[in-house]
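Backbones bend. To wit:
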Amino acid sequence: MTISNISNQPVWAEEQCSPSKSILVNEDESQIRVAWKLEERWNGDIYLADDGKSIVQDTVYSKKRWFNPMVHFANEGIVDLEDNFFVLMSLERENTYKRFLEQTPRVNPGPSDPPDDGIVVVRREMFRFPFPVSYVLQSRNGNPEPSIVIDSNDEIGDWVIGYLQIGSKDC
């Protein structure tokens, strides 16, 4: 079968597509394929929200790595701790760390919520569905998968790819 256009895609799916995100609904509306670009060296968790109507991505940022000005200036050869930009970066990184630490959700913790304050977690809803989807990830052919797939592509980087079964549309 050759498909020459995507006019059968629902508006809710089409509106969520961008250069770094894609959502496709198969022809019989029983299965969804989602894909999105990950940051380089991404660390975190991806899961379905409790209501089964969205995919959530928690990204973990360690203080030692992401909020350390020495790491940011490593390739510039800055070794003077009194350098104006180093001092400014130190203040900015500390303020940003504190701000994001305060924003880390604590009421309904996800799988990657920090055990201590050495990391911050940025939680993002990647896709929202107008109905629940199955909690079981699938292969393209509908077979159960143990986890979501991260596909590395030389041209466009690392992408999360998942197939989900559409649940009851009456929920």
Q: What stands out?
A: The chain has a mean pLDDT of 84. Residues 84-103 form the longest helix (20 residues).
